[in-house]
Amino acid sequence: MVKALVADSSAAAGQAAAHLLERLGFRVACAAGGEEAMALIAGTRPELVLADGRVETAGGSGLIETIRRQGWGGDLCLFHVTADGSASSIRRALDAGA
């Protein structure tokens, strides 16, 4: 079974995404913040990460950017999930490595 992580500051949105992924056959872990997400990633090594664009790590960096800076971060399939569809939001996500 493929492992996935959903990192979302909204519990409802995170649960909805997790439910969808579970129905698609993923084994899903959820995190509400950046530090929790990084700890889960280190412990479970998911193949897929869905990250809310608002989730940051303790240093203030975005989660996707922090993951990409890790030696193993280049191998993960990362999706930036946000309600902000502005061009600047999309550019920030792409620049971070989503």
Structure description:
- This protein is α/β, with parallel strands linked by helices.
- Helix content is 42%, strand content 20%.
- It has four helices and four strands.
- It has helices at 11-23, 34-44, 63-69, 87-96; strands at residues 3-7, 27-31, 48-52, 77-81.
- The longest helix is centred in the first third of the chain and has 13 residues, at 11-23.
- It is globular, with a radius of gyration of 12 Å.
- The two termini are 23 Å apart.
Number of helical segments with 4 or more residues = 4
Low-confidence stretches: none
How many beta-strand segments? 4
End-to-end CA span? 23 Å
- Averaged pLDDT, please? 86
Question: What's the quaternary structure here?
Answer: single chain
Shape: globular
The helix content, as a percent range, equals 40-55%
N-to-C series of helices and strands: EHEHEHEH
- Please summarize the sheet with the most strands: 4 strands, parallel
Strand order of the largest sheet: 2-1-3-4
Radius of gyration: 12 Å
Strand content: 15-25%
Structure classification:
alpha/beta
